[in-house]
Design brief:
Blueprint: E1 3-5, E2 10-12, H1 29-41, E3 48-52, H2 58-63, E4 68-73, H3 76-88, E5 98-100, E6 109-115, H4 120-129, E7 134-145, H5 151-160, E8 164-166, E9 173-178, E10 192-195, E11 202-205, H6 217-222, E12 234-238, H7 244-252, E13 257-262, H8 265-279, E14 285-288, E15 300-305, E16 310-311, E17 314-315, H9 318-330, E18 331-342, H10 347-352, E19 357-363, E20 367-373
Parallel strand pairs: 3-4, 3-6, 4-5, 6-7, 12-13, 12-15, 13-14, 15-18
Antiparallel strand pairs: 1-2, 7-9, 8-9, 10-11, 16-17, 18-20, 19-20
Helix pairs in contact: 4-5, 7-8
Length: 374
């Protein structure tokens, strides 16, 4: 396991979810560059530091013993990683306050250190929320690997914070220094909204929701083929995003008991607001979680899932495979997992290793809808 060795600490760090023989590490050269710069500048023990999108907690775990750190991001798995990495490196697991991206971190902050996220809308919303939260003389520094640093990230820093200067590249990483200047209070373009024809509902989407401007094509392929089983079924929407699958199913099945889970706090926030708009006070459970890890075994009759194929910048089916395993554990015998996926991902073969029966429900040239029975 690679050790993060910086002027602040030597750390053994985990990613989340943990995988056997993990090929990836929980930090990169951009984290190292940012910490080296901070040490060079000198960091007062009473400095208030806000970390945005600190992946698996490498920055927070490094700095926790040296200043007053607050971490904020949109990943529940990132929050779990932060707690585990603090505890695993001899610190209190709750030693760094964590603010979900669905809430606003309260300043004033002397330093704001930003890992540039994959979704620039999330960065934009975070920069908008910095307005009025910076202490006099505050320093704002963004970091990224160059291959993941679009020019638009610098444009957003300039628009919402102030003039930007880029560092030289070090180990294929770069820092962007934004000098705060007085600006009028910005208005946020988020959340965005779009309407569906069937079912006829409007969906609201906070900044980091996948396919924020319209229904993603996988969900569009899935909606006409949602299971028709009626009655008091216990149903989960796993990786719920803005909640559209669960809401469509619930509208057609008035007695069903729904649980919506996602690891994105902004997805959960969007799903909660969309459920309220479409279904009012109908009882529901909506939570940020590590998939169905918090779900009791044999407690669900049906799981609906449009699985992700990436975590941050990393593409692969490891998250989907884990979700399938979690669904199997949570389902009763005879319970069903319904998924939509790209044809080329070969989910039929993967599901056949976990479930006793797998059927194709529908297909188009790009997507397939599958039903797996426990």
């Amino acid at each position: 396991m690679p050790i993060l060795d910086t002027p602040f600490a030597q750390l053994d760090l985990l990613r989340q979810p943990e995988m056997p023989n993990e090929p990836l590490q929980a930090f990169d050269a951009a984290d190292e560059y940012l910490l080296a710069h901070l040490h060079e500048q000198g960091l007062a023990a009473d400095a208030r530091v806000l970390l945005l999108n600190d992946g698996f907690g490498a920055l927070a775990t490094s700095l926790a013993a040296h200043c007053q750190v607050t971490s904020s991001g949109d990943s529940h798995l990132g929050h779990l990683a932060l707690q585990k990495n603090l505890a695993g490196n001899g610190q209190r697991y709750d030693g760094v306050p964590f603010v979900p991206a669905s809430e606003v971190a309260q300043g004033p902050f002397d330093w704001v250190l930003i890992r540039v996220p994959k979704t620039l809308a999330l960065l934009e919303e975070q920069l908008i929320r910095l307005h009025g939260q910076l202490a006099p003389g505050a320093q704002v520094v963004a970091a990224a690997m160059i291959k993941h640093l679009p020019r638009a990230a610098g444009d957003l820093l300039e628009k919402y914070v102030g003039p930007v200067q880029a560092s030289l590249a070090v180990k294929k990483a770069r820092l962007l220094f934004a000098t705060p200047e007085a600006k009028p209070a910005p208005s946020s373009p988020y959340p965005t909204r779009y309407r569906l024809e069937q079912p006829p509902i409007e969906l609201l989407n906070h900044a980091n929701v996948f396919c924020r401007e319209g229904l993603d094509i996988g969900t569009r392929a899935f909606l006409p083929h949602l299971p028709q089983a009626l009655g008091e079924l216990r149903v989960a929407d796993l990786g719920c995003g803005n909640g559209v699958l669960a809401i469509a199913y619930a509208l057609a099945n008035p007695q069903a008991q729904l649980t919506l889970v996602d690891e994105s706090y902004m997805a959960v926030q969007s799903a909660r607001e969309n459920w309220q708009a479409a279904l009012g006070e109908r009882p529901v459970t909506i939570r940020a979680d590590d998939g169905l890890a918090g779900q009791a075994p044999d407690s669900l009759d049906l799981v609906l899932c449009n699985p992700p194929f990436h975590q941050q910048q990393v593409v692969g089916d490891f998250l989907a495979w884990r979700m399938f395993q979690q669904a199997r554990a949570a389902l009763v015998k005879g319970g069903e997992l319904w998924i939509v996926g790209n044809r080329h991902l070969g989910y039929h073969a993967k599901l056949s290793k976990l479930f006793r029966g797998v059927q194709q429900v529908a297909a188009n040239p790009k997507f397939v809808v599958l039903k797996a029975t426990k």
